[in-house]
């Protein structure tokens, strides 16, 4: 995993998706890393700066409950706020309309 201090927990990982719980402390940044197409779901409010490779940084306010689809990318992120940002990131492993290899089942209880 890119940054174990940020990527707190892999909630689910199978042939179709990887679901990760992340937390960025105030002022904390991620190293450069890549994702396939993914969705970020905010658990807390905050202000985050995202820098896609080869582009200028973009700062945005996020609210708990916001969901953002992000195409495959190499980027880094920084928490610009004064409180931790907690999100759930769901990486989509199979492209387009291909039939998933694994049937939909609930995640095992831990």
UniProtKB/TrEMBL annotation:
Top-level taxon in the UniProt lineage: Bacteria
Domain Cupin type-2: start-end pairs: 22-89
Gene3D superfamilies: Jelly Rolls (2.60.120.10)
Alphabetized Pfam families for the sequence: Cupin_2 (PF07883)
InterPro entries: Cupin_2 (IPR013096), RmlC-like_jellyroll (IPR014710), RmlC_Cupin_sf (IPR011051)
Protein name, entry field: Cupin type-2 domain-containing protein
Organism: Flavobacterium limnosediminis JC2902
């Amino acid at each position: 995993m890119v940054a174990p201090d940020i990527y707190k927990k892999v909630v689910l990982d199978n042939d179709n998706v990887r679901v990760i719980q992340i937390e960025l402390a105030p002022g904390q940044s991620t190293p450069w890393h890549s994702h396939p197409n993914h969705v970020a779901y905010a658990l807390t409010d905050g202000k985050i700066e995202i820098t896609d490779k080869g582009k200028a940084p973009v700062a945005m306010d996020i609210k708990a409950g916001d969901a953002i689809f992000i195409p495959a990318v190499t980027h880094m992120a920084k928490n610009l706020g004064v409180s931790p940002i907690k999100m759930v990131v769901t990486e989509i492993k199979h492209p387009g309309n291909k039939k998933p290899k694994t049937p939909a089942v609930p995640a095992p209880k831990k």
